[in-house]
């Protein structure tokens, strides 16, 4: 993928549930606002990384439920699986790192001695992550005792409690933070370290992300007590970490502005389609504008479309080749094809009637 071959202008590493995705927002407005901002201003030279506790099975399920972008890199199962691109090519080097002092059979055998632990579903038991449910008041004691048992058996593991119910056992070298550290080291070795990295999270298993030196961090406004407590104890005086006043993806947009990491006005917030000055035509922005125009046009919310169509025509004539390249680029990924074809009919009509 071309974007992985250059030093990214901005790399956003975001948790999904209750961070990028707001499960209390049935219209997905903040997610759609972030998507339009990313597609129009960042996609071409920046990297989007999703870092989730979800296994590949549950991650794919979420993608069917919510209008999520296709990330450049996906870190799943609490930092134990790293994959690249839409086809999700695994990082074999990371698998080797995780195999050190790890034996999942021993983990399952020892944990079965704790009746407080309830094994999660089969899809959540991964090569380097074994997950349980445990009640909040029992968690600390179980974690301490279990850790001792596993150490006696020669393993070097990490136990993470998250969301007030999930207990994950991972190799010591795993976790969201370690996976990010591995990626940053890999980029550094290849001479393409991102210029800025922004990590985003809401719960306990995100704390590690905020421990990585040099990164900016945003705890979304709805962050859980466990993350806020960690912050109060370990990173209170770090000016590069903020607790946003906005929920979920809106908090991420807020952080981009707070740290001056780039443009942070989503095109979705701009009601005037003609706002972009012609001399500063940004092809990505124009494609997103066309898509947003189409959305509103379908809902019969556009009273007078002529000025916008004239502006689109002028933009295309001025930067014709770039515009069409961008149009293909933004919608070429497998997952976005449906969206591409949804607008293609209208786009073709516009192009045929007004431009070509
Ligand atoms: Mg979360």
What does this structure look like?
This protein has 13 helices and twelve strands. The chain starts with 9 loop residues before the first strand and ends with a helix. α10 (283-298) packs across α12 (320-331) and α11 crosses α12. β8 and β9 form a beta hairpin. By secondary structure, it is an alpha/beta fold. An eight-stranded mixed sheet has the order 5-4-3-2-1-10-11-12, sandwiched between helices. It has a four-stranded antiparallel sheet with strand order 6-7-9-8, with helices on one face. It has three domains: 2-90 and 175-258, HAD superfamily/HAD-like (Rossmann fold, 3-Layer(aba) Sandwich), CATH 3.40.50.1000; 101-171, Hypothetical Protein Ta0175, Chain: A, domain 2, CATH 3.90.1070.10; 270-355. It is elongated and about 75 Å long. Magnesium ion binds at residues 15, 17-19, 202-203. GO terms for molecular function: magnesium ion binding; sucrose-phosphate phosphatase activity. InterPro entries: HAD-like_sf, HAD-SF_hydro_IIB, HAD_sf, SPP-like_dom, SPP_C, Sucrose_Phosphatase, Sucrose_phosphatase_pln/cyn. Its EC number is 3.1.3.24. Its cofactor is Mg(2+). This is Sucrose-phosphatase.
């Amino acid at each position: 993928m071309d974007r992985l071959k250059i030093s990214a202008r901005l790399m956003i590493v975001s948790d999904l549930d209750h961070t990028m995705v707001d499960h209390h927002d049935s219209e997905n407005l903040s997610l759609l606002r972030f998507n339009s901002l990313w597609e129009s201003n960042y996609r071409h030279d920046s990297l989007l990384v999703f870092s989730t506790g979800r296994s590949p099975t549950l991650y794919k399920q979420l993608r069917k439920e919510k209008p999520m972008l296709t990330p450049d890199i996906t870190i799943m199962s609490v930092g134990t699986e790293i994959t690249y691109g839409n086809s999700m090519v695994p990082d074999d080097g990371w698998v080797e790192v995780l195999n050190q002092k790890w034996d999942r059979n021993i983990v399952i055998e020892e944990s079965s001695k704790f009746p407080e632990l309830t094994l999660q579903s089969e899809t959540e038991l991964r090569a380097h992550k074994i997950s349980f449910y445990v009640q909040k008041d029992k968690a600390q004691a179980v974690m301490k005792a279990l850790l001792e048992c596993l150490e006696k058996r020669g393993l070097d593991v990490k136990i993470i409690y998250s969301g007030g119910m999930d207990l994950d056992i991972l190799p010591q070298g795993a976790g969201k933070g370690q996976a990010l550290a591995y990626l940053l080291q890999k980029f550094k070795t290849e001479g393409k370290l991102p210029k800025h990295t922004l990590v985003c999270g809401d719960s306990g298993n995100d704390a590690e992300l905020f421990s990585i030196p040099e990164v900016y961090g945003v705890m979304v406004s709805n962050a859980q007590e466990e993350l806020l407590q960690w912050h109060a104890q370990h990173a209170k005086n770090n000016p590069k970490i903020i607790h946003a006043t906005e929920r979920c993806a809106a908090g991420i947009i807020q952080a981009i502005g707070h740290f001056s990491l780039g443009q942070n006005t989503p095109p979705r917030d701009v009601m005037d389609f003609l706002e972009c000055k012609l001399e500063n035509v940004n092809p990505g922005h124009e494609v997103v504008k066309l898509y947003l125009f189409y959305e509103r046009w379908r809902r019969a919310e556009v009273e007078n479309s002529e000025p916008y169509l004239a502006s689109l025509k002028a933009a295309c004539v001025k930067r014709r080749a770039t515009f069409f390249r961008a149009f293909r680029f933004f919608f070429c990924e497998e997952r976005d094809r449906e969206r591409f074809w949804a607008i293609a009919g209208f786009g073709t009509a516009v192009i045929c009637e007004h431009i070509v």
